[in-house]
UniProtKB/TrEMBL annotation:
Organism: Paenibacillus solanacearum
Domain HTH gntR-type, chain residue ranges per copy: 1-68
Upper lineage: Bacteria, Bacillati, Bacillota, Bacilli, Bacillales
Keyword Acyltransferase: no
Protein name: Histidinol-phosphate aminotransferase
Cofactor: pyridoxal 5'-phosphate
Any GO molecular function: DNA-binding transcription factor activity
UniProtKB keywords: Aminotransferase, DNA-binding, Transcription, Transcription regulation, Transferase
Designated gene of the protein: hisC_6
Annotated EC: 2.6.1.9
PROSITE patterns the UniProt entry points to: HTH_GNTR
Length: 464
């Protein structure tokens, strides 16, 4: 077919750099003459290339080559870099093509509605679909309590500043916790009390003391696949935390940003133990789908809804309607569930490979965290190693990790903890990356590995 030949020729010139980004393409008539075909054939070729985002049209001017962003291949064999630093979804598994179809479908279904001002709370049809989706996560709520937000971080930022019905002012957070929450606390000058999360969970007596004596407005928690440690609470622990919150009139903000990745249907969110409004449930679609979407939700109690929506209105008027409409179609079509099943399999394999590499490669004095289903974990470096210096040595080995120091409140600050994410690292590079981490430990401080020479069993018995 001639139009396919035209497409192949133009794309070949673009790939070779003969047609630069922003360069105007030959006119339709000149190409028709060159290929000895009709004008309609060239129009079809250009139309197909436009759908593939290779070119774009300018009214009364012509067609131009699209400016292409440089793609990052960190963690791949292309660069040799092993990127445990980046924490977005696996780039090869991001459903951008499916979502593109959903965006196009949303425009066809809703037309001009996709480009007008919308409800602050979010499209009602989307909230109905989100309510159905949440039931799969054991979160039973009505669409009227669901607020669509620009990523769950927006909800958290707004809730920090809002007055709560209990009249309290301070907040309680796990230590460590993710950097965006720490920054939000600092920016709003909120008073925060920390409680350490350990391999054995939380110290419930300490948590009760904090709730009882420190004017706690809410307790912020990531109840499964915690960032940065990767830990998850048991159902017993979740229930106990909810009971303490009920006893001392403390609200809970449960950030279930990776809840969709949990394959264990027996695990319940804290919301399931008190759906009345004591637990404010938030989740995001960024980490499991496309970070650039900035789409999330918050299940807000009736008593807080008006104040929350007023704060959201002041923040951004409403979440972009086009992405909301596309998400609704993505959920309804079953694409999301298909995607999640694939993501569960990917991260389960990667996390298991990471844990096995820790066991086999790290010295007994290096404590590590993580799960076999999430994609975050931490390594507490043995004394006297410091994270900042250690990270610089790792960079020379083309291994990138994150310094967890920023993820602590000042009074809990640690300078010997690094965070790893396996989300964007190829499976075959995970073990190699941990091997390099162990080698750098050995180079900096050889005494760490003297115990390891006794035998493999010594290493396998030091998981925590």
């Amino acid at each position: 077919m001639i139009y396919a030949e035209v497409m192949h020729t133009i794309e070949w010139q673009i790939d070779r750099g003969e047609l630069k980004p922003g360069k105007k393409l030959p006119s339709i008539r000149s190409l028709a003459k060159r290929f000895d075909c009709s004008v309609n054939t060239i129009i079809k070729a250009y139309s197909e290339m436009e759908k593939k985002h290779k070119i774009y049209s300018v009214s009364k001017s012509g067609y131009y080559v699209v400016e292409r962003a440089l793609s990052s291949h960190a963690g791949s064999t292309d660069t040799g870099i092993i990127d445990f630093l980046s924490a977005g979804p696996d780039k090869k598994a991001m459903p951008y093509r499916d979502y593109q179809h959903c965006i196009n479908q949303a425009i066809e279904v809703y037309k001009e509605e996709m480009f007008t001002y919308s409800e602050i709370q979010g499209l009602y049809s989307l909230r109905e679909e989100l309510a159905r989706h949440l039931r799969e996560l054991q979160v039973f709520t009505a669409p009227d309590r669901i607020c669509v937000v620009s990523g769950s971080q927006q909800a958290l930022h707004l809730l920090i500043s809002l007055p709560f019905p209990n009249g309290r002012k301070n907040i309680c957070v796990e230590q460590p916790t993710h950097i965006s929450l720490i920054e939000s606390i600092k920016y709003q000058q909120a008073k925060a009390y920390g409680i350490e999360i350990t391999p054995n969970g939380l110290d419930m007596k300490r948590l009760e003391h904090l709730f009882q004596h420190n004017d706690i407005k809410f307790f912020y928690t990531v109840s499964r696949f915690h960032n940065p440690t990767g830990y998850s609470y048991s159902n017993t622990e979740r229930r106990k935390i909810v009971e303490l919150a009920q006893k001392y009139d403390v609200y809970i903000i449960e950030d279930d940003y990776l809840g969709d990745l949990d394959p264990d249907t027996r695990q319940d969110p804290m919301f399931a133990y008190d759906p009345s409004g004591r637990v404010i449930y938030t989740k995001s679609f960024s980490k499991v789908m496309l970070p650039g979407l900035r789409l999330g939700l918050a299940v807000v109690p009736e008593v807080l809804r008006d104040a929350f929506l007023s704060a959201k209105f002041a923040s951004d008027l409403h979440t972009p309607v086009l992405t909301q409409g596309a998400l609704e179609i993505y959920l309804k079509s079953g694409m999301f569930m298909t995607h999640i099943q694939r993501m569960r399999s990917i991260y389960k394999r990667k996390a298991a490979l990471l844990q096995r590499a820790y066991q086999e490669q790290l010295p007994p004095s290096a404590a590590y965290s993580g799960s076999h289903s999430g994609f975050y974990s931490t390594i507490r470096l043995p004394s006297p190693l410091k994270a900042e210096t250690f990270i610089e040595h790792l960079k020379k080995e083309d291994v990138y990790v994150d310094n967890a120091k920023r993820m602590y409140l000042s009074e809990f600050e640690q300078d010997s903890v690094i965070r790893l994410s396996v989300s964007q690292v190829e499976e075959e590079w995970i073990g190699i990356g941990v091997q390099k981490i162990a080698r750098v430990m050995r180079v900096i401080y050889p005494m760490l590995f003297l115990i390891c020479r006794v035998g493999q069993q010594d290493v396998l018995n030091c998981e925590q």
